[in-house]
Amino acid sequence: MKRATILFMIILGTALVCLVAPLFGTKSLWSMLLGDAEQGAAAWDILWSIRLPRTILAFLAGCALAVSGLTFQAIFRNPLATPFTLGISSGASFGATAFIRFGLPLSLQGGLGAAFFAFLGAVLSVFVVYGLTRFKNAHSTASMLLAGVAVSYCFSSLILLMQYTADFHHSFQIVRWLMGGLEVVGYGRVITIAPFVFIGCLILLTFSHELNLMAAGEDLAVSRGVNVKRVIIGAFLVTSLMIGAVVSVCGPIGFIGMMVPHICRLLLGWDHRVLLPATIAFGGGFLVLCDTVSRTVFSPVEIPVGVITAMLGGPFFLWLLAGGSAERAYQKGQ
């Protein structure tokens, strides 16, 4: 009953945040809605065309990042695993950086050229990591983790090379994209990532039993009849496509996949049947809240939401390290 109550409070809090967040920003809609008819019409236009799609985009991105982080932490049994552990973010960033640096002649409506190439980069990283593990004929978590780290470093070095050789204009664009952001007008980008997030979350929810056993160790999972190879590959592909879609649209937004699973685990324990829906809801609401802070605290200047999450993630990581909360939680789970 206690866990059910906490889960209900998380879902309720997320719903309230998502309902209130569109009303706040560089210009408060409250005063405009209470003004004359012209101001009221402008307020409704801002709400439906800018604020609401931005809130939905933040919610979807937060859900995907958080549940992917939880999945990787369970599979790798590593409290520091994040959605970007396997090089997906670096691959997507490389694709977008290449598009910006070389000014490739793909012009898509709404600036989606960088997003398209970012998704291609994410897919490329997935194939490279999977190809390396197949080449070594080893699908263990350690092999996949090492392959992901190696691929991530390779893409990061290429990004630095292109940024160094770019002119000032392209260099600024690259840096800004790498900060992550949720600036959006209309629902085009929301529609782009929504199928990936919905389908990915539904598939991961069906893995709750397997993740419980995987978090306790591969040997125990095998003894209980879990096909470890199938779970690892399936979770890897599902999370990779989700993160690739999110990063291609929003840029690399860090620390959500590390912070949210830890918070939910401290509140609800280790049962992934409860943890997965709680993490999905909390992650979406948390990123919506961070985005609201990024566009209100320093108003009229908007700070990229990736900067806000990084400012929160650093102290959170130090708190985990100093307090030993992560180690105690994993020892308790094991």
Low-confidence stretches: none
CA radius of gyration:
20 Å
Percent in helix: over 70%
The CATH topology is ABC transporter involved in vitamin B12 uptake, BtuC
* Order of helical and strand elements: HHHHHHHHHHHHHHH
The structure class reads mainly alpha
End-to-end gap: 23 Å
The coarse silhouette is globular
How many runs of DSSP E, i.e. beta strands?
0
Rounded average pLDDT: 83
Strand content: under 5%
Largest sheet geometry:
none
Text of the CATH class: Mainly Alpha
CATH architecture: Orthogonal Bundle
Enumerate how many helices there are, as a single number: 15
- Tell me the CATH superfamily: ABC transporter involved in vitamin B12 uptake, BtuC
How many structural domains in the coordinates?
1
Give structural notes.
With 334 residues, the protein is mostly helical. It has one domain (2-333): ABC transporter involved in vitamin B12 uptake, BtuC (Orthogonal Bundle). The chain is built from 15 helices and no strands. It is globular, with a radius of gyration of 20 Å.
